[in-house]
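Local shape tokens

___
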Amino acid sequence: MANVLIGICGGIASYKVCDLIRELKREGHNVKTILTPFAEKFKKEEEEIKA
């Protein structure tokens, strides 16, 4: 299978990309991600809201 690198920059697309990553992994692909600083901040804010 393929090696896939996905860059995530934040916003609503960062939610949607989770489905893509899940599907690629289910098909056996090796998936790695890189987050921009904004995406990391976006993720932390989301975790604070859930807590």
Notes: The chain has a mean pLDDT of 83.
